[in-house]
Design brief:
mainly beta; about 40% strand; 4-stranded antiparallel β-sheet; about 450 residues
């Protein structure tokens, strides 16, 4: 694997959980740590609550959260997706969980929820079938401990009383989904499901007459981490901002020179052997070292008896010794805006500053009050293979909207942003009726910035 898939948090969400008019905070818990609920007070404190149901489920790695009223009792309930790659595929620690809110921000686990087990990556919750009730999409990147095999994705339709039915025949059932949103991107009155993932294009599906229709799909296949819908040019449709790996690494990916992952059970030991390749100059070469390759597929040792032999082999030569591999492909590493047009999706790359590190968190904000939404990006990935090194040059990037989907980077000396580490969440929240941004950073304390627009962020 090129990176650790066990470090996808923290996820932060907010809403008024106890009907006091203040925005409260929910923070997803890593394995061994319960998800926490903090209720905001009038004095701008966030008081932790005692949540027995979450303490009992602290052995789960909570990778995504969604607040919605699933049983129509006028209280926001909580869905928690479990992942982390720490248990074998099919383990019950990957169960999707549903908790009922008592109206005061205290949650209890629902006992009649369907058992859906998936090494999950994301949740999206909104009405898909136009019946007025919130439905559920559960996205999975990979089968647990079986990279690069895709896991199974699920759609659960809600009957309005908190009971759910699984839908079958999903055309995206085995896509490597890393993020998803349900939104009416084209403002036609009906929600669509928008998916991005690793080795995948951006795909837009609608659910019509009990079946799925592919509305749009990009030509670009990326190492896509996240997708965010917002209106950036004041036309009727939303644009889709997609976070990718960026261009500041050893990886190169274009349609002419793609990254290709070749995989299969090459030594027939009942485990999948992935071999990633990328271009160096005009040739495609395996990323993996000779020692790692032979450790993975010992039968190849006889073909590469020395490091010199291995140094001279390209991917075409290596493939002669790998029977019938399956493949996944990436042809674009840029963080981009997808503009929805009549003839398809147009990819518009963001400025070079947006490409300096992987993007995992996106938020739109009109910081200069000119009526156009600007873009805030965060991310990084410090936990890659040693050969790839840390990718951590993004300290919070604010891009000014200059119109016509053109953007300019605003210097951090003006924005005041200095967010270090692997940021996974940008959460807007109001505290004493003033807007703030909370940055959720993996294995670190959250960082909070006050928005002083039009004097930017501090």
């Amino acid at each position: 694997m090129p990176k650790l898939y066990s470090r996808s948090g923290p996820v932060l969400i907010r809403s008024d959980l106890n009907s006091d008019g203040l925005q409260d905070l929910v923070s997803a818990g890593a394995q061994g740590q319960p998800t926490q609920v903090f209720l905001q007070t009038a004095s701008a404190e966030f008081k932790p609550t005692s949540q027995l149901a979450f303490i009992e489920d602290a052995t789960y790695e909570d990778v995504d959260l969604a607040l919605t009223d699933l049983n129509d009792d006028k209280h926001l309930d909580l869905l928690i997706a479990s992942g982390g790659n720490g248990y074998p595929d099919g383990d019950t620690h990957y169960a999707l969980r549903y908790y009922l809110n008592d109206g005061q921000g205290i949650f209890s686990k629902a006992q009649d929820f369907p058992l859906i087990i998936s090494n999950a990556q994301c949740l999206a919750v909104a009405d898909l079938n136009q019946d007025g009730f919130s439905d559920i999409f559960l996205g999975t990147g990979y089968k647990a401990q079986q990279f690069p095999l895709a896991g199974e994705n699920y759609v659960l339709l809600n009957d309005g009383s908190g009971h759910f039915a699984l839908t079958g025949d999903l055309p995206f059932v085995n896509d490597h989904v890393m993020d998803a949103i349900i939104t009416d991107y084209d403002q036609d009155g009906f929600n669509e499901l928008i998916l991005v993932g690793e080795w995948e294009p951006l795909s837009i599906y609608s659910f019509q007459n009990g079946g799925w229709k592919l509305e749009h799909q990009s030509q670009e296949r990326g190492w896509f981490n996240t997708v965010y819908a917002t209106n950036l040019d004041n036309d009727p449709e939303f644009e889709l901002v997609v976070g990718n790996l960026g261009l500041n690494s050893q990886w190169i990916a274009t349609p002419e020179k793609p990254i290709i992952n070749y995989y299969g059970d090459f030594d027939q030991n009942q485990t999948i052997d992935p071999i990633l390749s990328c271009y160096i100059g005009e040739g495609s070469y395996p990323l993996v070292s000779r020692d790692d390759l032979i450790g993975q597929v010992p039968s190849l040792k006889k073909f590469f008896t020395s490091y010199k032999d291995y140094a001279q082999i390209d991917m075409a030569g290596l493939l002669k010794n790998l029977p019938n591999p399956s493949t996944d492909t990436i042809n674009d590493l840029r963080t981009v805006i997808f503009d929805v047009q009549a003839d398809g999706l147009q990819a518009i790359p963001l400025p070079v500053e947006a490409q300096i590190a992987p993007v995992y968190a996106i938020h739109s904000i009109d910081f200069d009050n000119d009526g156009d939404e600007d873009i805030l990006l965060a991310g990084n990935n410090e936990f890659n293979r040693v050969k790839l090194g840390e990718m951590n040059a993004n300290h919070g990037i604010l891009l000014r909207n200059d119109g016509d989907l053109h953007f300019t980077n605003i210097s951090s000396t003006l924005t005041g942003l200095n967010v270090r580490g692997d940021t996974r969440t940008i959460l807007p929240i109001k505290i004493q009726n003033h807007p703030y941004l909370i940055f959720g950073i993996n294995n670190r304390d959250v960082e909070t910035y006050k928005i002083n627009s039009p004097d930017l962020i501090h």
